[in-house]
Amino acid sequence: AAIEAGRRHDAVAGEDREVAARLERLDLARISRLLELPVIIASNATGTVRARWQGLDIEVGAVDADVRLSAADVRATREIVPVSGSLQGRLRNRETTVTARDVAALDMVAEAAIVTHLARKDLAGAVHVRVPDIAPLLALAEVETEAGGRAEVEIVLGGGWQHPTAAVMLLGEDLRSGPLRNVTLTARALYDPARVDHLAAAVFQALQ
Fold first, then answer.
1. Which has more confidence, 136 or 14?
2. How many CB atoms lie within 10 A of CB 23?
């Protein structure tokens, strides 16, 4: 594993600066352990990062990152998660865009696109997760059940960094559990911290 610095140009304040680097099979499991993350990401990362800006403020510059994740050949557990897929990051004039494609982990496949502005600290985006069969996930979580079937989750993000909102839609198809077969389930939920805070305040007043 290596991080190789490519073309680099540093200049005095007010002039152009540029840094380019290439990742070669960076061991994310090792980094996960160094950072003491609750989950070990068993993957290698390969890709490029290029940054161009003027003066000392990189936030108004341009950053491009393209990274491909290759899952390690290990069995997935609740603590060790092999992940594969591609990630792209872009920064233009304080607006960042993160895109994930074909990110596979724990028998799930996810797509995502998230946009945020560093100055306004707002948030927008969508995450789509497909689960061909929920049975392996339930087994991994040590849930004793015969349930299974396909599921899809759509999450629409909004709000800001401090108070993000999320609209969630769950669709289950061909679900099975015990004698039940070919069940279809649709569920929707909205997370809004402002509403949660308001409800918590109302409950607190009611208990006084």
1. 136
2. 19
